[in-house]
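Hi D.,

Good news: the full-assembly prediction came through. Inputs first.
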Amino acid sequence: MPRTPADQYVSKVRKPEDIDRFWDDVLAETAQIPLEPEVVYDPLRSTALIDVYEVFFTSLDHVRIAGWYAVPRQREGPLPGLIQVPGYNMEPPVPKNWAARGYAAFSVAPRGKLRSNRQFNPGYPGLLTYGMVDRNTYSYRGFYMDACRAVDFLLGREEVNGERIGVTGHSQGGGLTVSTAALRPEIKAAAAGAPYLCGYMDSIELTDAYPYQEIADYLRLYPDSRQQVEDTLAYFDGINLAHRITCPIIISVGLQDSTCPPETGFATFDAIASDDKKMYAYDGHGHDANNHEHAAVVDAFMAAHLKD
Amino acid sequence: MTTLTDVKPSDFDSYWHDVLAELARFPVAPEVQDLPLRSTDFATAYGVRLTSLGPYRLYGYLSIPTGDGPFPARYHLPRYGSVTDLVPQGQANGQRRDHVTFAICVRGQRLADQPYAAAFPGQLTDGIDDPATYVYRGIVADCVRGLQYLAARPEVDATRIAAIGNDLALTTAALCPQVTHLVTTPTLLYATAELAPRTSAYPLEEINDYLRSHPTRRDAVQNTLSHFDLRWFGSRVSAATLLMAGADGAALDAAALQPLIDDIRGETTVHKAEHSGYRDGRYAEEWLAERFGMAEPSLPPHWQD
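Then the structure:
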């Protein structure tokens, strides 16, 4: 049977009535924890033009989180801040490329990533299903907060214009872009590529590829937990958080993406509350979502909203 | 101007002969554990621990199809980073229906990070001052060891063993005659010393970072990298090869890779990247299915017509 065109797919995800209260409580709990930032200059990764720092701060559950912070040496006045959020099985990059374009760029390593895994390390595969039977134990409860706390780090930097902070990422970074923009109103521009963590339960029916296959694996072994899993994931689904996004946002998808099905990207886009939103759907592309060309679109979008 | 890396090191062959001889002195000593969480009705998954150079214990994900073999095998070599997936992200899990698959975690990666946990960035320059200490000496040996284990499995059809990945797929095919098919995307180990200064993108930026901090070690670094340069491995590859080249104009486009292409002894197909994970990935799947004599390529739903 031919598939429904991606932009006509109807998500089966249902939104919990108390989703906003749940996240407001998590945000409040996180805010009670002192950030305790530690910023260490890294001469090995710094250049004549870019200063690079290794950063550590404290997040939800008092987990210590790492990140790379890169800023241009030559600057006049406060810089726009840009948060780069990582893919599922990649290591957060040193964001020198963004610093070279005039941003105070922070690349966060949420819990479980290398350098942030001393207190929490479910592994890969593993992170996607860890604690999935309860919204209060699910791995992404803290993981989302770690990305959100990157905002707090930038807000505390005197060289950063706190009124001009953006967030961007691809795949899981796309999903974290959606969640961070939804949960932190300080975000003024968001660019999500091939967003993951959107339409979790839809995705295990739309694709047999990993990482979503981790959920299918789990339900095959623990079929009796299906309802609990669905209930939990509904609180974390980007489709269900999108109504909180009010900043300008762009989303890109590849129409042949087998990792993060484009159907879920469209469903997320449709649910975004912001009037200033745009979808870039690339036919003939998979999980790359035409990043080779779309990167210039993201550059221009961030410059327009954070620099002009 | 001729640089150190333009010529094959005089001790290249003896270096790798010695590595393989040293590896052979360590028994594989496999420990195989069922992985019910990753098993399906069409394939059983196992976690495998085995010994490599050092001795050093590695980890791998093995999947065996349900039913009677032997089956063609896909040996998935790791990309640069801490994570190895059971099936590479985005590829069809359905490939496990009719292929033995084996994905190796090399030293420094998760599940093979005791006692050595690699840093990323960092691993690409670990021990780089000397070919004898460079971490890739062990990593290349790890990949060889994994292939030796896979090829010895009774479920594997010895006439259809594919090494699939980036640089490490090619070095494995060069050092292991059991590899019959090769799908390789040169990425980091081709003319590394020449290409690194032309980019500021990681992982190659690690080389630039290192030489900026240690400028007097440039010759030593170039000498080490020349022992791992894919150009000097090509003549050892007899597998049928699909070489995934960069798009025209890219640092590693087909023109840049021509010396390697010329040296590979197996039937070689060159595919120029189309900057599309879908188009490039589908091409590779169709190439492999045709060479393996499979009725259909293993495609995830969104890659199918």
